[in-house]
């Protein structure tokens, strides 16, 4: 079995142990792609997979608005409240960190295993919820930058 399969199997196990269904499912899908010799689709997944995932994420967040479950006046008023302004700032900072995390993972994909393992530690010891590698990568990139380990 090639080395990459062992890495993907490790990610699958860590995803299962960390109760991260998304990570476990992604690893399982990659193993199936490898098993049924569909490696020719890997470059397309690498180029477009993130965009497709983000598309579905944005759709899921916008569904309450499309279903008219949120009043437009409530949304407008939230921008002028302290929690609304803090949410706006938090969204901007999180998006910036996510971009840094994506860049770091593209440049240093070997760090993904450490991010997954760190997420498991956060679940176990900090009662956290795994939401994805981009934010974890963004925080790691920020810490690396502060310690002079990242450009």
TrEMBL record:
Name this protein carries in UniProt: UPF0756 membrane protein MFMK1_000422
Family as reported in the entry's similarity comment: Belongs to the UPF0756 family.
Transmembrane segments: 6-37, 49-67, 79-99, 111-144
UniProt xrefs under InterPro entries: UPF0756_TM
Subcellular compartments: Cell membrane
GO cellular component: plasma membrane
Keywords: Cell membrane, Membrane, Transmembrane, Transmembrane helix
HAMAP family in the record: UPF0756 (MF_01874)
Chief localization: membrane
Record membrane topology: Multi-pass membrane protein
């Amino acid at each position: 079995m090639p080395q990459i399969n062992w890495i993907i199997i490790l990610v699958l196990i860590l995803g299962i142990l960390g109760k991260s269904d998304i990570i476990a499912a992604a690893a399982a899908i990659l193993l199936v792609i490898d098993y049924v010799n569909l490696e020719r689709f890997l470059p397309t997944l690498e180029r477009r997979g993130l965009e497709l995932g983000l598309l579905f994420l944005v759709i899921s967040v916008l569904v309450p608005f499309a279903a008219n479950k949120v009043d437009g006046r409530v949304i407008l008023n939230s921008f002028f409240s302290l929690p609304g302004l803090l949410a706006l700032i938090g969204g901007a900072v999180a998006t910036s960190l996510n971009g840094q995390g994506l860049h770091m993972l593209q440049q240093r994909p070997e760090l993904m295993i450490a991010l997954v393992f760190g997420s498991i530690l956060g679940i176990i010891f900090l009662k956290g919820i795994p939401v994805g590698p981009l934010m974890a990568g963004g925080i790691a990139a920020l810490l690396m930058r502060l310690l002079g380990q990242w450009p």
